[in-house]
Structures are given as structure tokens and as C-alpha cells.
């Protein structure tokens, strides 16, 4: 294969690239997030992280309220001016009377004002509960290493039935530093069940 030969992206990569474009419309000054919902191979809704319609955004205020209050990522989302990208995609579908049943959501995220610095765009717990309830089949999230991870919503439901919400290994904003879970660089507590799950995954890696 020559260097000039066209390499066609997979559908998952194609739709994730659309979500990447959508995220550039966001008004959050911490992260840029974009979501695209696909059903029957058609785009049916999009959403980005931004202030509710007709209200003042963090750009317009000139600062992030959560950052000013010292609230780390992954916590206290009721104190935020923005509606999350996933929520806006669901809301926009509702405004047009479009069903999401059986569809897929693609989520792309990156650090604000750093176009080449993607992040692990896992939905927060509030969004995750909404994604389960709206009947989506898959959720495809960008990763900080440039790849993406595919989640099957039925598996989320199974996991939360067998364990609990706090046992989720893919919590938004959670990263490991010196083998310890952190959010925003600060140590957090995780359940014993999750500790065992992570240790088991490391053994089999």
C-alpha cells in the first residue's frame, strides 16, 4: 500500500470525528465535550457542553464557577453553569420528537483551549444514568491516548445490578497517580470492590 493510498476511517472513528467537531462549540472553560447520537446509521442529535439556552456562559462571566470554588472534576455538578454534552444531545432529540432507542452515542472530549490534548471522555454518573434510561445501545468515548473505548449499555446495567454505582471503574475524571486513584490530582476513596477489580485487571494485563 502506497503512502498516498486513501485509508477510509471506520464508522466509529467517523462519528467520533463528528463529535470532535461538535465539541468546539462548547462554552465551558475547563473542558470541551461533544456528543453525537447515531441511529440506523444517521445522525439524529448532537450536543456540546454549554450554558442553558438564553443564559450567561462561563466565557461571558469570564471565569469557571466550579474552579473558583475549588470543586474537582467528577463532583458537585449541580454547581455548574453548563449542561453536559450528553444531556444536551438527549434534550435536543426530545425537542425534535426523535426516539433514541437502540442508538449509539459518540463522545469526544479535550482540555479547553488545547486542541491536541484529548481526555478520557467517560460520562459522569448523572449522564450515565440518563444514557441508560434513554435506551441507547452503545456509548463510544474518546481516550486521552488518542484512541476510543466502546461501552455497551446493557453491561453498565448488569454491573450496577451486581455491584453498585461507586464500583464503576471508568469514573469521569478519575486517574491513577502512584497506583492511587485521584480526581483533579487529589486522592479519592474508592470501594473495596473496585480496588479488587482494578488489582485483578492489572494481574491479567
What does this 3D model show about the protein?
There is one protein chain. This protein is an alpha+beta fold and 205 residues long. It has a five-stranded mixed beta sheet with strand order 2-1-3-4-5. The protein is globular.
Question: What is the gist of this entry?
Answer:
This protein has helices spanning 11-23, 58-61, 65-68, 85-95, 125-133, 153-162, 192-204, and strands spanning 31-39, 42-48, 104-111, 138-142, 148-152, 174-177, 180-183, 186-187.
Helix/strand order, N-terminal first = HEEHHHEHEEHEEEH
Structural class computed from helices and strand pairing? alpha+beta
Using only C-alpha atoms, the radius of gyration works out to 17 Å
Strand content: 15-25%
Mean pLDDT: 86
How many β strands by DSSP?
8
Multimeric organization: single chain
Total DSSP helices: 7
- Which term fits the overall shape? globular
* Poorly predicted runs: none
Largest sheet: 5 strands, mixed
List the helices and strands and how they pair.
Blueprint: H1 11-23, E1 31-39, E2 42-48, H2 58-61, H3 65-68, H4 85-95, E3 104-111, H5 125-133, E4 138-142, E5 148-152, H6 153-162, E6 174-177, E7 180-183, E8 186-187, H7 192-204
Parallel strand pairs: 3-4
Antiparallel strand pairs: 1-2, 1-3, 4-5, 6-7, 7-8
Structure characteristics:
205 residues; alpha+beta; five-stranded mixed sheet; 7 helices
Amino acid at each position: 500500500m502506497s503512502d498516498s493510498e486513501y485509508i477510509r476511517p471506520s464508522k466509529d472513528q467517523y462519528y467520533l470525528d463528528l463529535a470532535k467537531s461538535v465539541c468546539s462549540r462548547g462554552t465551558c472553560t475547563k473542558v470541551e465535550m461533544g456528543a453525537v447520537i447515531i441511529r440506523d446509521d444517521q445522525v439524529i442529535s448532537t450536543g456540546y457542553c454549554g450554558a442553558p439556552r438564553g443564559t450567561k456562559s462561563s466565557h461571558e462571566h469570564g471565569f469557571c464557577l466550579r474552579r473558583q470554588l475549588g470543586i474537582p472534576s467528577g463532583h458537585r455538578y449541580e454547581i455548574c453553569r453548563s449542561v453536559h454534552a450528553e444531556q444536551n444531545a438527549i434534550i435536543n432529540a426530545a425537542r425534535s420528537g426523535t426516539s433514541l432507542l437502540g442508538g449509539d452515542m459518540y463522545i469526544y472530549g479535550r482540555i479547553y483551549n488545547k486542541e491536541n490534548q484529548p481526555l478520557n471522555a467517560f460520562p459522569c454518573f448523572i449522564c450515565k444514568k440518563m444514557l441508560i434510561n434513554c435506551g441507547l445501545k452503545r456509548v463510544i468515548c474518546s481516550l486521552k491516548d488518542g484512541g476510543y473505548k466502546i461501552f455497551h449499555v446493557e453491561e453498565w446495567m448488569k454491573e450496577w445490578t451486581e455491584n453498585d454505582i461507586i464500583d464503576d471503574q471508568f469514573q469521569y475524571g478519575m486517574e491513577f497517580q502512584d497506583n492511587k486513584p485521584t480526581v483533579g490530582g487529589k486522592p479519592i476513596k474508592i470501594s473495596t470492590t473496585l480496588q479488587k477489580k482494578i488489582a485483578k485487571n492489572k494481574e491479567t494485563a
